[in-house]
Amino acid sequence: MSETKIQVRKNGPLRIEGENILIVDAEGRPFGLAGRTVVSLCRCGHSSNKPFCDGTHGRSGFDSDCPARDLPPPAPKP
Ligand code: FES
After folding, report:
1. Is residue 6 within a helix (H) or strand (E), and if so which, with residue range?
2. Alpha helices of the chain — where are they, by DSSP H?
3. Which stretches in the chain have pLDDT values below 70?
4. Distance (Å) from CA 41 to ligand 1 centroid
């Protein structure tokens, strides 16, 4: 199985690239992606087509740079 890559774009969306992308709504229903292998999800909150990016981040002045870093280990489960 090929790897799915999620890139945090500087001042922009989350770009998902993979052969078998599944995005579901709050009830677990899948969005129809029409065979896309690349999808961008809005991270700025201003898209008119949420959860997908529509490019509004560029006009809204969204400013967020998230360089890669290591997370601490997850908290133990009770
Ligand atoms: S990140 Fe592109 S419209 Fe929000």
Report:
1. strand 5-8
2. 57-60
3. 1
4. 7
